[in-house]
Amino acid sequence: MSRGLILFAHGARDPRWAEPFEAVAAQVRAARPGVAVRLAFLEFMAPDLASAGDELAAAGCTEVAVVPLFLGAGGHVRRDVPGLLQALAERHPGTRFTLQPAVGEAPEVVAAMAAAAARALGT
Amino acid sequence: MSRGLILFAHGARDPRWAEPFEAVAAQVRAARPGVAVRLAFLEFMAPDLASAGDELAAAGCTEVAVVPLFLGAGGHVRRDVPGLLQALAERHPGTRFTLQPAVGEAPEVVAAMAAAAARALGT
Predict the structure, then answer these.
(1) B64 touches chain A (CB under 8 A)
(2) What pTM value is reported for the model?
(3) Does A28 touch chain B (CB under 8 A)?
(4) Where is the secretion signal located (chains A, B) (predicted)?
(5) A54, A100, B21, B110: which one has the fewest Cβ atoms less than 10 Å from its Cβ?
């Protein structure tokens, strides 16, 4: 079994916007060296989700987890992503694509946001 | 000096979308009991940033930190928030409003997102 991970972010016109997500991808790669990790975007930036999924399937991944790097699974995540994953599944019947919860719902991310906000208050 | 904190999130039509942000607010309140903490939204949900700022200033806060609960300071955060804070400063000359970096740029949040994404891969 060959595993892949797509970190799926919104995207923005300013390329610097992607820097924290590139840092997330780098940290995941360091923690999971056997996994093919790709950063993909809903709009404005490349690759999009379909291209990243095609790439990982072509590279031989049989399992691809899709993790929305969103705070809250808002409108476009809930509406758009399932359809994108369904299209990927149809194009690549040998690969299982699974949609994970948005990272903003993870307890460690909630705790980290609270810690960062408390830090903004100083001592 | 009386301090306040506004956690500023995007907002969504679905009220459940705010739950992780309410959890962040609860954790910050527990960590900083002397600080007045409010959750405010850019759209769809109440209070908005202006109302939350008015409320904290009326409650006597002399320092209010505004923390964008955004991953990356995207378009509306960079374009809209400074103007909103400027308007608040003009309405409340006795209160200093300071815009903090978006939480998505904080190292602990980046690390937490990477940990949550790696966890999605299982063992």
Answers:
(1) no
(2) 0.89
(3) yes
(4) none
(5) A54
